[in-house]
Amino acid sequence: MEGRPTPESMLEALDSAKRTALALIEEALAEEDPAGVLESIRLRFLGKKGEVSLILKSMGSLSAEARPAVGQAANATRDAIESALARAKDTAEGAALDRELRAPPIDVSLPGRPVELGRRHPVSRTGEEVVRVFERMGFKVASGPEIEGDFYNFEALNIPAEHPARDMQDTFYLASGHPVAATLHDGTRGPEPGEVLLRTHTSPVQVRSMLRSPPPIRIVCPGKVYRRDSDLTHTPMFHQIEGLWVDRQVTMADLKGTLQLFATSFFGKDTRVRLRPSYFQFTEPSAEVDVSCTLCGGSGASRSEMEGHEDAGQGNGSIAGKPPQTGPCKTCSGTGWLEILGAGMVDPAVFEAVGYDPDTWSGFAFGMGIDRVAMLRYRIDDLRMLFENDARFLDQFP
């Protein structure tokens, strides 16, 4: 608009802008990229420096009587253009969607390629194999919470308050937590848990199982346990499996027979078992249980030494012309035996804590570290390798 704008010239300019904008919007629908064209039309007419915006800015030069009519016309023009733009945008989007639906489908699949399957971790495999052996002997799998109470982890197992295992340097105590009291077999609530801690063994599962079920009972309890310990053969978290058999007239002979069957089933038919006297708070009598060395067969001699004697003159047992090595077996330190678990007859005090009559019922319990058994099974010399997630190490176990 040249010169000073008049109400008539401004109304004429608004009408012209409206007609031009609506015509351009109609034409934009035929374009390949309607969205881009519609945005440029919006900026031309409704942007900060657009035609309608400039007309509105010039209204300050009009008289007070003329402003309402021009303002009303400007608002109507703006609304008409915005409505037309919105309708055109919806039409363009609908057309694009229709074209996409009518178009041939796009194959988004990748060409076939071989995928390497994962492997079971040696600890997981070992634990599952151990459980299977005991399941074949009639044991059922039982489980319990890893956050446990003092009563179930210590007190019910005849471990007094002054016992070293209950010290802070050996056990992870928690500042807060609410372990649930056991529900007894008659539906009533069992003893209160007491202080909260991370269980140091899976024995609390045995306690809870006895509180929940009357005898007879035959269970194995696999799971994670926690202790403040870390070196080549210990980690703060490790895996354990414990077993419990309570019935009438269960004896130490039943214990040894069960462990002998486990050893031959798991390590091989020629494996022997040895029980050595020991002491545990929750069993009496107690024993450390050894199996004949899986590497030297119980001879105590190194494998290369045995091969050198058995195949003398044939070149076996030597490397690059060197004579076979001699000396004790490194796995068992020449003893021919490997310690794998602790066991014993359940102490009457434990039966009394869970409400079993020790004059009527007897039983045995045992416990072993699954990680320890995995080390023996796969001849691993550093326990920490099982938890470092090194693919080069794990790839050795098909």
Layout of helices and strands:
Blueprint (H helix, E strand, L loop, with lengths): L6 H22 L5 H13 L4 H7 L9 H36 L19 H15 L3 E2 L5 E3 H4 L42 E3 L4 H10 L4 E10 L10 E11 L4 H16 L5 E8 L2 E10 L10 H8 L26 E10 L1 H7 L7 E8 H9 L12 H4 L4
Parallel strand pairs: 1-4
Antiparallel strand pairs: 2-3, 4-5, 5-9, 6-7, 7-8, 8-9
Helix pairs in contact: 1-2, 1-4, 2-4, 5-11
Defining traits:
398 residues; single chain; BirA Bifunctional Protein, domain 2; alpha+beta; two-stranded antiparallel ribbon
What does this structure look like?
There is one protein chain. The protein is α+β, with helices and mostly antiparallel strands. Among the domains are: 7-101, no CATH class; 122-141 and 217-293 and 336-394, BirA Bifunctional Protein, domain 2. 38% of the residues lie in helices and 16% in strands. It has twelve helices and nine strands. Strands 1-4-5-9-8-7-6 form a seven-stranded mixed sheet, sandwiched between helices. A hairpin with a 2-residue loop joins strand 6 and strand 7 (283-292). The longest helix is centred in the first third of the chain and has 36 residues, at 67-102. The chain is elongated, with a radius of gyration of 41 Å. It starts with 6 loop residues before the first helix and ends with a helix.
